[in-house]
């Protein structure tokens, strides 16, 4: 009995608050009046920043590794 009542409440609630589904991030720009190129540019910028951060982090990791190696050599000497 409780399950049927809850089901009806849930269906009624979802009917009142329905919204169109967005297929992918490209459609977000359509809500603002732009086209897909805006979302593509934003995704491209995010990709560029992430690659830059990964390369920068890799450089810092190599420097830290070199420093650890030199410290290990000093300890053994």
TrEMBL record:
Keywords of the record: Membrane, Transmembrane, Transmembrane helix
Transmembrane segments: 37-55
Lineage: superkingdom: Bacteria
Pfam families listed in its UniProt record: DUF6732 (PF20506)
InterPro entries linked to this entry: DUF6732
Protein's UniProt name: Uncharacterized protein
Origin species: Litoreibacter arenae DSM 19593
